């Protein structure tokens, strides 16, 4: 047994079908009497449904959340919160909406409830990524964490198959990297393994039968565990690469993760063969990276960074940025091999 430190996150989780019906009760537990509800511009309806559940605890809606939490949007939302004299924030939606809730909580100390409807996992981390003038910065603080997270499977049924599958691969990336994290511990490893099992079982079922509630439940359960992994231990090459690629070329978050994951796994597999073997066993395959690449292909996920908008000329720049600030990774970062990894992901080739 390896030595470890285990720290748990202070969080209340409510999981199940129809659980958002308990929103008022949960708001009462946090003494929220004037809630500001947050959504992205396309999902005001969802926000209004939550308003109905809050009854007279609903103060107003801000339907302006966008990806990568631009500081200008946060400032608009803060103004709305102040005008409404809001004493709590309810974020309902994917990682973009959850990110806005975190940004408001950090600046105001208001209690927040997150109701995630994708598998990105942001609601389980004390990390906030924000953009200003095209630069993305990340910070971590306990005040950023939602106090309560309500996972309502029913709210994920409308997630289109294409969004659900890439978002599922995004969640998988958190669990995969948690298994070989520098600060891994037995509890996180158990959660990561169960998350991988749940997600790889659920995604093909969702692709075949989008209204399969059991599959949607399993995927959301796996996403919860994956988010916990992301919030509990440090991430390495895969997340660093996705951060660089997403930030530099403005690539869509979940798709970038889905495409890069098999390549990053392949890169690290020689350094952590036990982890590679464990994941391969869960996947029922010989090689973990190639099995994940094949799964993504079967799910119809874009295979290449080229397809999602990365220019070929960016490969060298991405390789430079990925090794510019050294960080821990199970296998040392070698510029030539990292460039090869990015080039293969760009072209949609099999992972090496
Ligand atoms: P997102 O919130 O933009 O949602 C992805 C897509 O799903 C959008 O098109 C959205 O409209 C759609 N969608 C969401 N819920 C839906 C529903 N119920 N029905 C139908 N469609 C729905 O993106 P995301 O992938 O969930 O999150 C990405 C963002 O989260 C990025 O900004 C990323 O940086 C951030 N993130 C942060 C952390 C962290 O720990 N700080 C972790 C993961 C992701």
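Q: What amino acid sequence fits the structure above?
A:
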């Amino acid at each position: 047994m390896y030595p470890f430190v285990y720290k748990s996150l202070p969080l209340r989780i409510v999981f199940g079908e129809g659980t958002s019906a308990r929103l008022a009760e949960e708001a009462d537990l946090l003494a929220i009497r004037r809630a500001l509800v947050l959504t992205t511009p396309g999902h005001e309806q969802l926000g209004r449904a939550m308003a109905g559940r809050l009854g007279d605890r609903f103060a107003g809606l801000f339907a302006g959340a966008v990806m990568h939490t631009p500081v200008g949007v946060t400032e608009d939302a803060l103004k709305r919160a102040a005008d409404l004299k809001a004493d709590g924030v309810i974020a309902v939606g994917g990682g973009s909406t959850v990110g806005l809730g975190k940004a408001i909580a950090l600046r105001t100390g208001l209690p927040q409830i997150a109701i995630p409807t994708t598998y990105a996992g942001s609601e389980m981390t004390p990390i906030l990524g924000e953009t200003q003038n095209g630069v993305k910065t990340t910070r971590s603080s306990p005040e950023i964490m939602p106090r309560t997270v309500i996972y309502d499977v029913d709210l994920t049924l409308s997630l289109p198959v294409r969004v659900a599958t890439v978002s599922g691969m995004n969640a998988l990336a958190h669990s995969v990297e948690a298994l070989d994290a520098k600060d891994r511990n037995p509890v996180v490893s158990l959660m990561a393994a169960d998350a991988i099992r749940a997600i790889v079982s659920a995604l093909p079922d969702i692709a075949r039968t989008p209204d399969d509630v059991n599959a949607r439940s399993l995927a959301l359960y796996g996403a919860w565990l994956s988010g916990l992994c992301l919030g509990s231990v440090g991430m390495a090459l895969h997340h660093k690469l996705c951060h660089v690629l997403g930030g530099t070329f403005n690539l869509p978050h979940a798709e970038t993760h889905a495409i890069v994951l098999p390549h990053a796994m392949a890169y690290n597999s020689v350094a952590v063969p036990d982890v590679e073997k464990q994941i391969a066993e869960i996947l029922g395959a010989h090689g973990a990276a190639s099995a994940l690449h094949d799964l993504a292909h079967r799910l119809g996920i874009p295979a290449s960074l080229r397809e999602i908008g990365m220019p070929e000329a960016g490969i060298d720049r991405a390789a430079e940025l990925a090794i510019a600030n050294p960080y821990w990774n199970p296998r040392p970062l070698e510029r030539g091999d990292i460039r090869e990894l990015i080039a293969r992901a760009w072209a949609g080739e099999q992972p090496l």
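Q: And what stands out in the fold?
A: Residues 186-208 form the longest helix (23 residues).
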